[in-house]
Amino acid sequence: MVSYDAELAERFQRLLAGVENVTSKRMMGGVCFFLNGNMVGGADRSKAGERRFMFRVGKENEAHATALTGGEPVVHGGRRLGGFYFVDADRNSGETVEDWAALAVSHARGLPPK
User: Fold this and answer.
1) Is residue 114 part of a domain?
2) Helix (H) or strand (E) holding 38
3) What pTM value is reported for the model?
4) Averaged confidence pLDDT in the chain
5) Mapped to the 3 state alphabet, what secondary structure does 52-80 carry?
């Protein structure tokens, strides 16, 4: 995550409305959201200025994630991070982003609380 975008962080937070035990933390240049201490995802701007969401859907949900539209695997330092996807926030909205958020929340709920 490269740059904090307050409006984008608010959009992400609205995706999690009604989900209990959600916290947020500014980190990696953006803001990340956690459910029971486990990362759900975050929001930032890339070095190129693209507004994007990042969702942690888990490696076991890769097949489901690749079936969703609008996402691309996160690559950091030339290495693909399994179970993490970027979704362009300006090209995707509504149901598409809600589907990504639901998959990420489902994954986080399946993890033991931290």
Assistant:
1) no
2) strand 38-45
3) 0.94
4) 93
5) EEEEECCHHHHHHHHHCCCEEEEEECCEE
